[in-house]
Please model this.
Amino acid sequence: MMKNLHKGLMLSILIICSLLVSAQQTATSTDILGTALQDEAYQQQLGNEAFFNQSPLDIPYLEELEFRTETHEFDPNLQEYALRFKFNSRRQVKVQKGINQGERSLRYYAQQAYLEELLFHRYQLLIDVWYHQQQLETSNTQTPWYQDQEQLIRQRIAQNGQRSYDDLLKLEDDRLAFQQQYSESSQKLQLLTRLGNNWLDTPVDSIVFPALPTPADIALYWQEWQLDTLVLPWSVQAQKTQKELVSLELAAEQAEKRNRLNFLQVRYQGDNNPILKEQLTLGVGVTLPFRSARSVKNQYLLLEQREEAWQEAEKTRSWLEKLRSAEGQLASQLDSYDRAKTSLEGYIDQFAPQRLAELGVSEPELLLRAQGGIFYRQQLLLEEQQQLYQDYLEVLLLSGRLGQAPYRNWLSVEREGIGR
Model:
């Protein structure tokens, strides 16, 4: 009877645990990245752009219609009326269209730069989440190793007395550092998950990853990118457009200066004579160019044009330096990861407990020490891989791929689209 009761209790516990596990809410890395497109400030920028696109910003050919009237001897029959038309030239209209297009481009670059920043921060969080998840998984495999170490040392204490207590004290110090590291990773993972929840509509318990690109995949991407055409970052494109806008402002000043037709006027003057004798006149105003304050403004615009060109060249130079540096760091980190991986594989081939057992090594202390060496090299490899992902992300950012449409998940082998 008690045996059946015990079995029923254990079955109930297993069912409850399975329900708790299945009830956990998860989000994928693609879900986290997709929240960047739903950012409130980014959506506000898109709304502003839609408003500007619906609003007519081009200047008309007819700039102004002015109505004038003037009395003569306060006699209504002698009242004088005039209509004055002011025009923009075809060149003025064309230049203004170019200015409007440039300003639209600046707003678009600002939007994309902001979105790129949102994506970059989410990628950084995801890399940290992945690292601490791996850290906790590795730590879980090390816990039994510390228990085996303690059991072995206590056996020596029973045999040798107090002489082996030094090993036990050292083990306790090592285990305390291990437990602190485990607790720190667990707390950081919880904090990162909460930060990710700030972007999600529904809070989740954990973030899961599709198949991440392996270092071999990243090395393959790196070779493919060598053949790609460089994509200017949004800041450099914006600076280039800003320089062009100054040139267009200068062209607008020159177009206005060359617009000789100031106004066209139609005037009507009534009198007491029959209607056929009423006077209707046509007048034209012409602007005569001469050196004035406008030429001073042109000089300032020319100076600003030179300054914007220098800023463009400087930003391009600085970006290329950062890109080449990041690419060099990525290549170096790929080599560093390969060395760490080769070191781990070589150590396992020679000193894995199974390998030592095949060679006739049966001393428990040696076998545990060999397993500890594997744990140490696995941790080094994990840190190298984390740094590799960070360098990979930096190259994606500086090469313009991170924020390039169609947006994709670069932390997935499939590189699936985000925000669909």
